[in-house]
Design a protein that fits this description.
The protein has 163 residues and is of the alpha+beta class. The chain contains 4 helices and 7 strands; from the N terminus they run αββββαββαβα. Strands 1, 2, 3, 4, 5, 6 and 7 form a 7-stranded antiparallel beta sheet that branches.
Length: 163
């Protein structure tokens, strides 16, 4: 009940002067200069300083460099799965930058940073080549989503058996 009440309050506050956009399957609201990512339960404040992208394997490095340099972006970190955290210059809108990345054709994924969401990731260097982890239908598993709910115990061994 409290969550419903909070959504109503947020709706009233943001409904007056909000800008809305959907990108990459996510819904964003902007109110008084601040972006928020909306899910079914709450609003997550977008971090205006960081965006995470994953470049297409076939994207030419010089095109990526040109795109990044023209926008004064700085690489902060690259993880084992190939996601790159980029520092967004002050005054640059992270959602507009996400839209630019989407339209550039250089990325397969882009994620504006948000405060308050912890995503677990595996330490397996071959994770990205294991296609079955990304499946989420009736017969497969969606382990990245599951890791956000429960990381388990390292002493427990799990096997997936197929017939």
């Amino acid at each position: 009940m409290r969550q419903i009440f909070m959504l109503i309050i947020f709706g009233l506050i943001f409904g007056l002067k909000a800008q809305e956009i959907s990108l990459n399957g996510q819904h964003y609201l902007k109110s008084e200069g601040q972006w928020y990512r909306q899910d079914s339960r709450r609003l997550w404040k977008v971090n205006p300083e960081v965006i995470t992208v994953k470049y297409r394997e076939d994207a030419m490095r010089e095109n990526i460099s040109t795109f990044v340099n023209e926008r004064n972006l700085k690489v902060l970190h690259t993880n084992e799965q190939g996601y790159v955290d980029l520092q967004v210059p002050e005054g640059v809108d992270p959602i507009e930058l996400s839209r630019d990345f989407m339209e550039s054709g250089l990325v397969t994924d882009f994620i504006p940073g948000v405060y308050g969401i912890l995503h677990a990731s595996p330490s397996d260097p071959l994770f990205s080549s294991q296609w079955f982890h990304q499946q989420a239908d009736d017969h497969d598993i969606d382990t990245p989503e599951a890791w956000n709910l429960e990381t388990g115990d390292p002493s427990v061994i799990v096997a997936v058996l197929e017939k």
